[in-house]
Design goal:
Length: about 110
């Protein structure tokens, strides 16, 4: 599991971190020098996973497998890439507080 958190510089920084923004970096298409190391981290993780089924490589902190107990998630951010455990715990707690089937209860 990973989360891309780097706020891109696209559109003078207005686009920020958006869905699929990491894809050019995974392919090593870097237009911003701030993203060079981030691109190496992401591309390396994708290549390592394709080769061996494990995204760990030397440019990343150790990446633990995801489980429901730890919810280990690699947070990719330029200069701040780190592994987080249960990074969305507050959001998850809110979502699980609703009754099962809410708002589409059969009643």
């Amino acid at each position: 599991m990973y989360y891309f958190a780097w706020n891109t510089q696209l559109g003078d920084g207005r686009l920020r971190a958006f869905h699929t923004a990491e894809l050019p970096l995974a392919m090593r298409l870097v237009s911003n020098p701030m993203a060079e190391e981030l691109s190496r981290q992401i591309a390396g993780a994708w290549a390592a996973f394709a080769r061996a089924g494990n995204p760990n490589h030397t440019r990343l902190p150790h990446w633990e497998p995801y489980s429901l107990e730890t919810r280990a998630t690699m947070i990719f951010d330029a200069g701040n890439t780190a592994l987080a455990r249960n990074p969305a715990k507050d959001e998850l707690a809110l979502l699980t507080s609703f009754p099962k089937g809410f708002p589409y209860d059969d009643e």
